[in-house]
């Protein structure tokens, strides 16, 4: 077992009084250059957006050809901005070594002055066979176990205390991860998952936010919010409900249902730099 603190205890993000808006960018083809994405992030910050988040993939199905590394891109965003929140949305922790992620997340949080959010999920082999092509774990149940074990290690690593973990999938034997993140007790974690599955909801309730994948409508979101509220049993710490919606969908009903963040949902196989710039110029939503 790990000597862990609970990331869900994060006190650095008060619950938003308005729906916050973020660009959610598939960093493919025209967006596969970190310099381009960093400039977009700086422009978004100037235009009043609250966040910029990037996809995390090794490859995608045709016609996508170029794919950027998310962590290098996030470092570029951190140095190009001063206010906005940013992070991977989402990173599949089952294909990453948790000790390395502990270093990366703390470093990005320091680099940005405490603005980093870690989005996590199971990942999928469906859209580019990136898991099977690289010999990664294909079984959803085992990937879920690896995800939860990684999150346990990350919570302990962010505490700044020595981590002693011997689990089914990972070992961390007495390593102290310093420097710690600026945010206390650690980086906020948003967990993604399909709304109809109980396990992702329970996972998210232990952390700092939930990002429902393939959300049907705002009524379904209201049900999700009610379920998570019950699972959290009145915890007073901040919790985010994050929805990905196309730019032409009114986010106001989702905000009324409990969403705290709206992320722009672009078609990964058709997104262009001009399209993102157009959405950026239109500005963030205003849902008080």
TrEMBL record:
Keywords for the protein's UniProt record, in alphabetical order: Flavoprotein, FMN, Monooxygenase, Oxidoreductase
Protein name (database record): LLM class flavin-dependent oxidoreductase
Listed SUPFAM superfamilies: Bacterial luciferase-like
InterPro entries, alphabetized: Luciferase-like_dom, Luciferase-like_sf, SsuD_RutA_monooxygenase
Organism: Antrihabitans spumae
Stretches of the chain forming a coiled coil according to its record: none
Enzyme class: oxidoreductase
Lineage: Bacteria, Bacillati, Actinomycetota, Actinomycetes, Mycobacteriales
Presence of keyword Oxidoreductase: yes
Entry annotated with the keyword Repressor: no
Chain ranges of the Luciferase-like domain: 10-233
Endpoints of the signal sequence: none
EC numbers, comma separated: 1.-.-.-
One example GO MF annotation: oxidoreductase activity
A Pfam family matched in the record: Bac_luciferase
UniProt-listed PANTHER family: ALKANESULFONATE MONOOXYGENASE (PTHR42847), ALKANESULFONATE MONOOXYGENASE-RELATED (PTHR42847:SF4)
């Amino acid at each position: 077992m790990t000597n862990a603190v609970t990331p869900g205890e994060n006190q650095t993000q008060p619950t938003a009084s308005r729906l916050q808006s973020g660009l959610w960018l598939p960093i493919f083809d025209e967006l596969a250059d970190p310099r381009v994405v960093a400039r977009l992030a700086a422009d978004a910050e100037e235009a009043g957006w609250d966040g910029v988040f990037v996809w995390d993939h090794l490859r995608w199905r045709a016609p996508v050809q170029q794919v950027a590394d998310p962590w290098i891109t996030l470092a570029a965003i951190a140095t190009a901005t001063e206010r906005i929140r940013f992070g991977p949305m989402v990173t599949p922790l089952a294909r990453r070594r948790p000790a390395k992620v502990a270093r990366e997340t703390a470093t990005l949080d320091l680099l940005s002055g405490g603005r980093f959010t870690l989005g996590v999920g199971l990942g999928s082999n469906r859209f580019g066979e990136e898991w099977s092509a690289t010999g990664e774990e294909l079984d959803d149940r085992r990937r879920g176990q690896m995800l939860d074990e990684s999150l346990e290690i990350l919570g302990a690593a962010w505490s700044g205390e020595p981590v002693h973990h011997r689990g089914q999938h990972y070992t961390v034997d007495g390593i102290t991860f310093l420097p710690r993140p600026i945010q206390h007790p650690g980086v906020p974690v948003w967990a993604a998952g399909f709304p109809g599955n109980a396990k992702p909801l329970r996972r998210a309730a232990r952390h700092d936010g939930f990002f429902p994948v393939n959300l049907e409508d705002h009524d379904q979101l209201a049900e999700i919010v009610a379920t998570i509220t019950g699972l959290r049993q009145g915890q007073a710490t901040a919790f985010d409900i994050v929805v990905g919606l196309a730019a032409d969908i009114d986010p106001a009903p989702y905000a009324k249902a409990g969403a705290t963040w709206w992320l722009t949902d672009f078609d990964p196989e058709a997104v262009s730099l001009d399209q993102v710039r157009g959405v950026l110029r239109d500005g963030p939503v205003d849902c008080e």
